[in-house]
Amino acid sequence: MATNLGKRKRPIAEANPQARKLEREESEAPELDAQEIFRRHFEAQFKPLPVVQSTAQQVEDVSEDDSSEESEWEGISEPEEESVEVIEHTDAQSRMAAMSKEELKAFMGSKPPKSSLSIPLIRDKEGALIKDDDASESANLKKDLALQRLLTESHLLESSSNPTLSGKNRHKATDLRLQALGSKTSIFKQEKMPITHRKGIVAKETEREGNRRREARENGIILEKAKMKGKKSSDGKRDRGVGAPAVGKFSGGTLKLSKSDIHDIEGPKRSPSTRGGGRGRGRGKRGK
Amino acid sequence: MMTPNPEFLRFTTHKSLTQRLVFSTLTGRPIHVSQIRSSSPTNPGLAPHEISFLRLLDSITNGSSLQISYTGTTFTYVPGLITGSVVNSGDVVKCALPESCRRGVSWFLIPLCMLAPFSKAPLNVRFEGEGVITSATETGDVSVDSVRTAILPLYEQFGIMGAKLELRVLQRSCAGSGGKGGGGVVELRFGSQVRLPKTLHMNRNPGRVRKIRGVAYCTGVSASGNARMIHAARGVLNPLVGDVHVAAQYDQAPLISSGDRNDPGKKKRTGVGFGLALIAESSAEGVIYSADVAAPSSGGVTPEDIGKQCAYQLLENISQGGCVTRVGAGTVLTLMAMGSEDVGRVRLGRDVLGTEDVILLGRDLKKFGASSWGMRDAEDDETGDIIVSVKGIGVGNVGRKVA
After folding, report:
1. Which of A51, A285, B138, B254 is the most buried (most CB within 10 A)?
2. Residues of the signal sequence (chain B) (predicted)?
3. d(CA B300, CA B49)
4. pLDDT at A98
5. Model confidence over A131-172: pLDDT tens digits?
6. Which fold has domain B209-320?
7. Which residues in chain B touch residue A54, judged by CB atoms under 8 angstroms apart?
8. Which of the 8 DSSP states describes residue B87?
């Protein structure tokens, strides 16, 4: 029994550090992720943080952990353990920190750079810059516009992947401006696609909306009125071709009037006692 | 200017040669320089870059005469009128530097800029040839970027219009193999001439560093070096100043003739290297600190090292204090001494004033007839800076006076 116990102990003792290691890795990973998320958020709002030290430390930490936990194992030779290889990944920070176009031009031109150079960022229609201290009415209007745009579009800059107003964000900003000007559809709406895809999208949309309404009803939340999606009375406003008759259908050299057309032309049959000599007699409802 | 019996001012050795030549040209006093590397058994006499500078002086002045002894260890210089670049066609004086030149082109540019405000016509000089090194060098010269961003702005305070100054770098080049030669092309256009530069009063607090700018340049090596230098420099500077922006400049290495006799049309590339030039602007007007580091021509350093080294050099220059750095002190003090007959004041750091260059400059100025400097401690704070008062000679622009 004793020998059995001894044998059994060993795998447990060995398994323990592994389990601990696993636990630690699991607990570390979300923490790192959270830090990463915070860092990105901060950088998107302010300036990029210097990351050099932290990465180096992390690399060292990991290696130290490894060496302490696997101290029983003597497979790795000494010199390899001593020299910790620190790898720095140069990232896109230097690109983000580049000067603006105007500043670069002023600084890298052949003239000596002005010491107190404040470069205005608002441009007028011709692309010329407006000075900060320009107090004219038109300049103020342009500044207002720039401010409004900044307010409405600044949420686009929050994405960590692209914190500039270029690329995809530029198109998003254009879409926002178009919709503010009264565009009915988004420029991102895809017009042509296979009908199965379209059906799928519509079905998903209605399902999502239905779910939302159902959940709201179950929770006792009152939502806005559902938009009626009934068919539109389109036959009245149907666009008839040029030269086509306003009433009926012209085919084979004859004008064919349907029953409803005749009914429309004749108007409602009323007894002359109720309404005598009323106007609109013999004319259609539509007043064509 | 040519007096029948000129009284020569006598100097020895090649130390601060350009400075003495500039003073001589401005004040009109002829000089006699002897014992130029006379103790050197292998390379006695004037070095190639010094000869080039003398030739350049000859071409931008009218009526100067130059006599060099057989071994080159002694020469006499009788200055003429600074005419600028009217004499040559194409309004630009061309100055070809030989391949054996070891000094950066800023060694020529800085003294040339001191002469230019006193010129009769705009002074346009183009440096070309197989010896033009635009980067910083191991011999202690700064890069052209530093000249443009740190030295030329100093002229604005002397009443010289900065808008009319231009320093075009048409081809960049680092020092070639063995630190000799490059293949750069640089054009200085100094279009602002004054009757008399006014003096300067920079005796206030130098303020705090507000922003840092710079240029990282890679010539003929991988352009990623720029990003690496910038990253390393920002690693040092970012915790101290938020506003750090460094421009990256990549160029191909210049082509020069390979010097092969059998195939004279054959070309080779030279002047490969990289470097970083940083400037720090303070909240006080006109106060600029600069730093400049380039990779040595022998190689063996990483861009990260250069970036870090340059950032530390900048910090060192800032810590020295004062309103003018070591690099700019010569220009500022010379212009103050040569300008209007007022007393100007400039605040210099103790370590800047105590350098050999500045002390030699003061002695030379005295020898050329300028009045002595007055010095006192800056008392408004604990920096230990010294306020130097310089009285101008009022040489002014002789060409303008006549015209």
Report:
1. B254
2. none
3. 27
4. 63
5. 666 778 888 888 888 888 888 888 888 877 777 777 888 898
6. Dihydrodipicolinate Reductase; domain 2 (3.30.360)
7. none
8. S
Residue among B169, B247, B285 minimizing CB distance to A104: B247
Q: How far apart are CA B144 and CA A66, in angstroms?
A: 51
Q: Span B110-128, mean pLDDT?
A: 92
Give dist(CA B359, CA B16) in Å, integer: 11
Is B161 an interface residue toward A (CB < 8 Å)?
no
**Single-letter amino acid, residue A38:** F
ipTM: 0.78
Q: Which residue has the tokens 């100007």?
A: B344
Q: What is the pLDDT of residue A273?
A: 58
**Do B234 and A94 make contact, defined as CB atoms within 8 angstroms?**
yes
- DSSP letter at B238? T
Q: For B222-238, what is the mean pLDDT?
A: 92
Domain extent listing, chain B: 1-82, 209-320
Q: pLDDT of B184-215, one tens digit each?
A: 999 999 988 888 888 888 888 888 999 999 99
pLDDT, tens only, B120-148? 888 999 999 899 999 999 988 999 999 99
The Cα–Cα gap between B392 and B389 comes to: 10
Residues 6+ apart with CB under 8 A from B226: B216, B217, B218, B248, B249, B250, B274, B303
Q: Which residue of A lies nearest to B235 if distances are taken between CA atoms?
A: A50
Q: Is B211 helix (H, G, I), strand (E, B) or coil?
A: strand
Lowest mean pLDDT among A93-102, B5-14, B61-70, B333-342: A93-102
Average pLDDT taken over every residue of chain B: 89
What are B248's two structure tokens?
A: 């990256």
pLDDT value at A126 more than 90: no
Neighbour tally for B155: CB within 10 Å = 25
What is the nearest CA distance from B197 to chain A, expressed in angstroms? 18
CB pairs under 8 A between A and B: 70
Angle between helices B326-338 and B356-367 (to 10 degrees): 10
* Residue A278 CA from chain centroid, whole number: 60
Q: Provide, as residue numbers in chain A, all residues whose Cβ is less than 8 Å from the Cβ of B148.
A: 110-113
Distance between CA atoms of B78 and A207, rounded to whole angstroms? 97
Q: Does B170 touch chain A (CB under 8 A)?
A: no
B1-82 folds as: Translation Initiation Factor IF3 (3.30.110)
Tokens 């720090």 appear where? B280
Beta-ladder partners of B255: B269
Q: What share of chain A is helix, strand, coil (3-state, %, to 5)?
A: 50, 5, 45
Integer distance in angstroms from the first to the last C-alpha of chain B? 15
Beta-strand runs (E) in B337-385: 343-348, 374-377
Q: Do B62 and B41 contact (CB within 8 A), yes or no?
A: no
Q: Is B165 on the interface with A (CB under 8 A)?
A: yes
Contact B389, B371 (CB under 8 A): no
For A26, counting Cβ atoms within 10 Å of its Cβ (0-12 exposed, 13-18 middle, 19+ buried), the class is: exposed
Q: What residues in B contact A94, CB-CB < 8 Å?
A: 227, 230-231, 234
Residue B370 scores a pLDDT above 50: yes
Q: Do residues B219 and B276 touch, judged by C-beta distance below 8 A?
A: no
